[in-house]
Amino acid sequence: MVSIMTGIVGRDDVSDNDDVLSKYSGKTIPSLVVWPKTTDEIARIVRWANLKKISLLVRSSSGPRLRGDWFPKVENTIILDLSKMDRILRIDPLNKVVMIEPGVTYGKLLKELTRKGLRPAIPFIPEASKSVLSACLDREPTIMPRFHWDSSDPLLCTETVFGTGDVLRTGAAAGPGSLEEQWASGQAQKNPQGPSQFDPFRLVQGAQGTIGIVTWISMKCEQLPEHHKLYLAGSDNLNDFMDFNYAVLRRRLADEHFMLNKVNFEAAIASANDIPEWVLVIGVSGHGMIAEEELEYRTGDIMDIARETNIILHDSLGKIKGTDILTLLNKPSDVAYWKLQVYGECHEIFFLTTLDRAKEFYEVFQNTANTVGFPIDQIGAYIQPLAQGTNTHVGLDLFYSPEDKELVEKMISLSSMGQAQLLNRGAYFSRPYGFIVDAVFKHASSSTLSAMRRVKQIFDPSNILNPGALCFKEVLQ
Amino acid sequence: MLEKNVYESFKKIVGDQFISQDPAVMDTYAFQWCNEIESAQRGEEPQRFGVRPLAVLLPASLEEVQAIVRLCNEHDVTFKAHTTGMGPWAGVSNLRSIQIDLRRMNRILEIDEKNMYAVIEPYVTNAELQSELFRYGLMHHAQGAGPQTSPLASHTSFVGPGFTSPYTGFSGRNVLGVEWVLPSGDILRLGSYDYNGKWFSGDGPGFSLRGIMRGWLGAYGGLGVFTKAAIRLFSWPAPKDWKWKTGGTIPNYDWEVPPYWQLYVLNFEEWEEYQSAMYELNDREVCMVATTSAPEGLAALFTNTKTEAIEAIFAGLLARTRNYIVVLVAAHTRREFEFRAKLVKLILEKYGGNDLIEEGVITPKPMHYGETVRNMLGAHAFRFSNCFQSTHGGMDTISMAVRLAQLNQPVKQKYIEKGVIGDDRGLGVWITSYESGHMAHMEVPTVYDPTSVKSCLGYAEYQDECNKMDLDQALGMPFFIVGDEVHEFYAERTMHYPDWLRKIKASFDPKGLSDPSHYVKGVKKDK
Amino acid sequence: MTLSEFEDMMDSCVRCSKCKFIPQLVIQSKRFSSVCPSVDFYNFHAYSGGGRMIMGNAYQKGRVEFTQEMLDVLYRCTNCGGCEVSCKWVYDLEPNEAIHALRVAAVENGAGPMPKHRKYIELVERMKNPYGENPAQRTSWLTDDIEIDASSDTLYFVGCTAASRREEIAIATAKVLNAAKEKFRIMGSDEQCCGSPVYRVGDEKRAIQIMKENIASFEQAGIKRIITSCSGCYNMLKVEYPRFVEHDIEVVHTAQLIESFLKEGRLELVKDVPLKVTYHDPCHLGRMAEPYEKWEGEKIEVLTLVYIYDPPKPERRGANGVYDAPRNVLKQIPGLELVEMERIREYSYCCGAGGGCKSAYPDFALTTANERLEEAEATGANTLVSACPFCGTNFLDGIENRNSSMKYYDLIQLVLQSIGGEE
Questions:
Q1: Do B400 and B338 fall within a single domain?
Q2: Residue A73: inside a domain, yes or no?
Q3: Could you tell me if the ipTM is greater than 0.85?
Q4: Per-residue pLDDT tens for B380-400?
Q5: Which of B52, B397, C130, C319 has its CA 20 to 30 A from that of A215?
């Protein structure tokens, strides 16, 4: 195996060293880590793995794993670590798009985009080493719902090596013509749909590596604002923001728009006295000609809505200034990820619902926490409207110290019981990880499962890509 | 004819009243606009009568649709479902086929005002849905095919540009869930519905089965029947108490324009300035509509009869019209309106353009604002000769759309000179942007005479040449690259994508019963 | 025009389905968006204006022969013209005319019309009316207080329905004319059906014969002007007759006449009529009431494949029907409140009775009346008003059928009430 891999990627980019392997190990230890650098290498590895029925698991980000699931689930797995494929292939400011490889991190991307006058749709203070491509492929929520037209945004086109070893550029990138020919004709791989009568990018996205290995993506960006302000509102009742939220989302007036509970606000942004139970964050901007007037009109209309819905927006919360928060939101987390700074570890739970039900789910989860004895003040919450307000991501962060064995047990109980309760009440775990995966697919209709398996059969017939994930439990033959 | 027992079994499902096999009734389903083009492209005599279905059924429910599809599987009968059914893709291709007319499934099942989505059945039309949404201050993305066509069809099964695309996006990207009778008869509901009975997300758990549902073009009914769709809604920029009110008499209606609405026709001498302005207007989110046609098209857009359009042309409109963008600023508040109106003027100045409305070259009446948002303007092109069809259609960037327009002109002119298509000096295009300019598409509406064999053959040849040009010059994939043979024509230079489509078809429709004529056959090909 | 002359037009239908709906811009709700009673009731595309054009085309091209079902499809149409209004806004097509041509072809072929139609046509021929009433009884509605001037050159053409089914309309018309001191005569037992029920089902030969006979008898009687209280008769005399039989007799509907009486001060509406009413535009007084104007000229290709008519061809879009006159009259009745339905004027929804449907397909006619009544009820009005005895008959059947609390009056009845003529 080592020699085959060495033959494909070269000696320096293959390792079976125990120390290396341990970084990629959960309950199961992989047999090899490989660092391919080209699509062709990946395709060759996949074709070989097909013949040998060897499972492959892709990693693009280094850093912590808060979802506890991105480890081999079967023996004899090769890790494909794509972090060395870290080129920004193209930035097109006119068409507001960037093309990146898997190893590009938010840190690197932000720096380059800013130079070109662009900003990406960015998740809420991501870890510095987080792969942008991975986040896109995982439908990770981003903080500006106004620019989030479809659940798949900001992901556009991809180049994907399917489980068969076949390579396809998805979306308009498929052709006609090579990428160079497309660029010459004015294209920029902006249309993610297709080619033609299917959307393969939607099959790769959210698949947790079970359908294909993505070697680059195009990602849509926005113009960097010249004027940008941040406003905050506080309340002890999440639903106090509801009318305001719906009105502002409908009007597409704001840039950043999300809510944090006190725990997460303090963990991610800053501690202070008198932080209310919930903080609403609203960013407003203007760019280009009469940028300042754009900021004024957007702010003016937002303030009118705030008045009508009894919300008071401030440009600071005590000593914490909006401008400081803005700076935080436009860069990745410090080297030590904010979620790990407080207690050392964090377990993430997240699901989709609609904004009007977020509070209900939060309270259900808190009740379960009380039942199992997990401290409420160690549960962070992040409420992120998506798809221009059509649905909402609810992220719950369980902060704990790995040394506190009793609390770890409680965290595990809370995670399993709490998620089960949320699921039963209608929370939609569209990106299921960890404890909840099996329950989620148990809830799915038989035709959904059958359709997913058919898709899997087409694109990864040997089930070599991350076997055991999602509903694909079949054991490799 | 279907075997008597098979016909009787179908009849049991829908009832006597809702099934027919009368030849004349069947012919009203065989006859389709553009069949004459497709038949010409196949080398046959151009004609609108296509394949006659053996029966037409009018189911009223999901259960009836499912029973029909299952019976088709039992008796090897091909089926094609349609809503209003306009175009050859709505008809059947196999001689042993039935047509499923979804006309009786026409309910708006839910309007979620806060979360901005609607759940609709197949035969709700754009105008109907729109008229019900206004009371909630909402609108949907209505496709250019017109207000009488089905938003479900567009969102689930067909390419979906529309006049409000800069503001409401693209049909295929606005789908939040579907209820889908697969070719096998199994029912698939996407996304969140299985978990809470709500349709707010159509993706997951895990990957999104929207990935096999439609792609960019839609599967044209080649992969089952959609019985419900949840689609995104958007804010309707008018006060709560504003009502859709019309007055007057055809063809000169009145319409009450909401406050803070303004139409512009921004005209630029050269494509370069046009392009820059188009990018900037879209990026700044000031337009509900940003659309371009030929000067001749402008005459049709804002007039009410063919005679008026022709009079406008001969009154000198062509001489003063170059590359223009019809912009509709539709704001919610005075503040928003004033900002947007100012920016439009500044962008116009920046790129040296002129406003043809301000200069009196064309004068939209209040009703044309209504027609714009009711998506009626596309149909005005039919006024010239009762018929047109579009070539090209590639969708990616504004620059590609412009390049396509430039390269198309001499090709189109060649066919104009042959006298087989309408004369717009080769300038006839439809460019519109999507999602605040993140995408754009360009197609070429082309007038031809469906009653003239020469014109049909000539148009078909022009469309073939356009398809080849797009292939050779990497100008995106045109609209009508569908069906096995046509897909194959594009396969080699588009990474052999049809092989994947064929696998999907084979897996989900092993008997090939969901009419493949405008999708693909499920034959597995060796790669 | 014969069916074959419609072939290019039938070839040009793009099957867009606009013919199923009122003009798209005027749609205000999903509930009342449709214009075609036939496709609403029967659903298959064949039952729409465009669908019937395709059937006509298929027949013309020899693809199909008349079957029982095809004939049913052809005749389950009220020929209301709604399809044509919507279609013509965009296309240069005339689906309603093509449907008529197909009916004519069906009759010529011997397949049409339907048995019920044949029966009433026979009655028209034998008894001069489709109801089979004794012609001698045609004036039985006359009351003693009605003044007729046999020497007048103005004829009140009563029509079969008012004469023998909706006598209250005939009486009210005569009394209002008397009150306005408008002298008129009637044809009495010599009055023959205008030919509408014969013409509408495609028996054009017999219909033309009736037209000729009627015109001859009018001319013989020295008639210069005809007043009609029936929209069907109005449409025949005003619009269809001149296409086949030349005449220079002025034709006026009571709604128009009353409007002018009020303007001239010949009538005074003095009595309160405390009703909240909504007005139904009869198809034959509305969109179908635009006269045909003879046109001779040529088609000129002004741009490649784009033709115009030189001189310009009059466009029959339904814009010039009698819409304002009845409304202007209603608005002047004291105590009366007029509210509008969503489907009005040229995009009014048919009552369901026309085109031979009331006799051959009564269930369809009744359902259509109910659909329109539901729309009337949705306005909050307590009274439906129209200006056609045949629409009235169908609405009264609908009101009974659905146990509606809605009242129905003909316009002329309310005028009579308001001038105090009922006392």
A1: yes
A2: yes
A3: yes
A4: 989 988 999 999 999 999 999
A5: B397
